[in-house]
Amino acid sequence: MDSKTRLKKLADAATIKIETNIPIRRYYRSGNEMLKMARVYDDEGNMEAAYVLYLKYISLFLEKIKNHKDFAMVLPAEKKKTNQTLKLVLSISEEMKNKLKKRYEEEYEVWLIEEEERKRKLEEEHRKLIEEQRRRAAEERERADMIEKDRQLAIWTQAQIDKGLDPDAPEQPSSQPAGSPAHQGSYPDPPNFEEATAPPRYDDLGGSLSGGEGRGLDAAYPTAAMSGLSMDNFSSGQPPTYDRSAKPSAPSGGAGTYNSASYSSLPSASNSRDMPSIPDRSMKPVFGHDTGQRPVIVPTKLITRFLELAKPNSDRNVETLGMLGGKLSKNKFTVTHLLIPKQTGQSDRCDLQGHEELGDTYDSEDIILVGWIHTHPAYDVFLSSVDMHNQYEYQNMLNEFVAVVCSIKFNETGYLTLTDAGMEEIGKCTQENFHPHSKTPALFGDAAHVVQDDNLDIKVMDLR
Known about the structure:
Blueprint: H1 3-13, H2 24-43, H3 47-62, H4 76-162, H5 181-186, H6 193-197, H7 217-220, H8 231-235, H9 261-264, E1 296-299, H10 301-315, E2 321-329, E3 332-340, E4 343-345, E5 350-352, H11 355-365, E6 368-376, H12 385-395, E7 402-407, E8 412-418, H13 420-428, E9 444-446, E10 450-453, E11 459-462
Parallel strand pairs: 1-3, 1-10, 3-11, 6-7
Antiparallel strand pairs: 2-3, 2-6, 4-5, 7-8, 8-9
């Protein structure tokens, strides 16, 4: 693809939309985390991924955020800070665009040269294929000509035998005049071509067409397919001369049998299945990283540390929640922080408090919010309707966002995420508090992108 097309694909990947049912503070928080991830990708040399994140930030705060129903409630200081950041991001993204354009143009020039070389090789392979077809066809014609000569010789030899002559006897000179009876009787009459080539009559073969001395011509002499015997050979009464040392072996179809199907077995130049396939270069990946969910590495000791902090609440049948912060590196997230924010809890729910303090901690620790964890003191591992709505707000902005649920009653832990069906249904739901949702298809399931690591440590910060 040329540079213009590739840049457009990057711009298309930066599409973002505003959902008014998601709190506006979540968009501002996500904007900050976009910039953190963009800087990581840029430092690692993944300019395309960084460019897409910068474009998302520009689209969000230059156009889309104004359409949120709570935009008027954003503090002027927050708006001013965001606008200043936006000007910087615009400058960075424009510089990146120019670098990407130059790189794409250089890659496109290289691709054109490679494409010409590929076409040249393809044409050369096609030419060799045609030459091989012609060579094999010529060999088949030569083989057919020689087989036909053998067939004509067999017919002539049988004609001589039918006349009582020895086809292998040499010609003897005669002293008689050419027109004398003796001369006429000492040489066989020239065979009639039509008689010689016609099949023998039943009576001429001793009254039998099968076995013994009287077996038929077809049994005695194999049938073949060749041409080129001159009439002069017959008129002279002599067998045709040819080089028997050049006689080819019989075709695989049997002695004296010409298999015309061998022509159809040759590869055809017009048959596209025999031509080398041409790769579709337009399918080059847009990004240098996987477009699916990136791995989230979680320290195994996270659960033990969290349950220790949650035990006082668990003993009172009260839920406890925590937020998981981490780092992005080499296209995977690693959970490094467990933050216990200010909160209020009950037996069936827990509500986060102190969003501003929590956001300041993310920034000071330079971490990205990648998941949350909470207990179910009296229930098993699942996501309630309230949990699913909370999960949607985060997963809508970061696809890898994970929900960890610890069942105190059943001593079980699950790493969960909303399915595509769950994202679709919860995204359309405007109800609050506990309410029913579809059972099938499943709205949440195990987070297959989560990997536990026994060797990782975790930093715990209790902000309560």
